[in-house]
Hints:
Number of strands: 13
Number of helices: 13
CATH architecture of the largest domain: 2-Layer Sandwich
Order of helices and strands: HEEEHHEEHEHEHEHEEEHHHEHEHH
Helix content: 25-40%
Radius of gyration: 21 Å
CATH topology of the largest domain: Nucleotidyltransferase, domain 5
Low-confidence stretches: 1-17, 154-166
Number of domains: 3
Amino acid sequence: MAFSIKNSLKNVFKTNQSESVIGIDIGSSAIKIVQLRKKAGRALLETYGEIALGPYAGIELGRATNLPLDRIKEALTDLLRESNVTTQNAGLSIPLASSLITLVEMPDIGEKRMAEMIPIEARRYIPVPISEVTLDWWIIPRKENTFVSPEDHASLSKSKANNSEPSNKKVDVLLVAILNDALAKNKTIATELGLQDVFFEIELFSTTRSVLDPGIEPVMILDMGAGSTKLYLVEHGVMKDSHIINRGSQEITLSLAKSLSMPIGRAEEIKRTVGLSTDPSNKEVNEVISSGLDYVFAEANQVLLSFEKKYNRSISKVVLSGGGAVMRGFTEAAKVHFQSDIVSADPFSKVVTPAFLAPTLKAVGPEFAVAVGLALRKLSMLK
């Protein structure tokens, strides 16, 4: 399913294509896009859309897929057309599963020597040959009460360029590796669809940009997709740890279909619309969904407690993101399992939107966190 608000907005915003950008989030079960435009220094929403990938793989809506490149391009082409996208300036997401991100401590040996040492040090953390990945890294300042935005990372590493003298100090280095195959796949998609001035970003950074406000307290983002659940531990705006739980919202759908002897498509609909309803007539549905969520929340709690023990600091809140987070009752269930404040991601709050769309955008916001984050980053790159 794809949906567009372009026609609703054309009397609200006058489109200037040169100032418009799109964020494209290619997930395992759906593709989401968000088109923004800059006006007076602010981001204005022009259109957004989502299309399920299941039908392109011959399976039900909501199921995770592993589509060949030509089918992904077909689905994305359909979505861009149906959503009335008017620009080719784009940012594309890189899945967390296709990357490795870790924070390592290294001697403060200066920019030049650091660049020589990083590939050697990376071999300790990367489980594939270095030739199969693209490496990047940023030096993170050890300053208390300092928030580091995703946009600051590149400038942070560059700021060390003039400091080539080694010292006895230690520095924290955010090491990032992306599988070359994942980059090549996105580059092919961008080229064959005629996208221009494209950049690629790991979904973790896009999500962090769109769902967190500047702050210094530790936060955990729980991003529940169809095939897996990602956990991001962020402090001072810096990713301190990440973890993948190999269960997502499709596991709940499949469990519902099996337990209630119904088609998978119907189970997906019930999961989204009924969810964890308090209605006694939905007791069996509630039990099946709760069982699936209990496992994910228990794993997430272990990651959270491990972080708190390692850094001796408490998580201030848990932000819920991803398609699974829009399920009815999901937020309330999370509040039972975590001893922290629970917040539903609201990425569209960082974008100017028509008032009449506010309830809809707030409801679907967790699904569009990556796409909004990509578009915001791309918008900041415009001259």
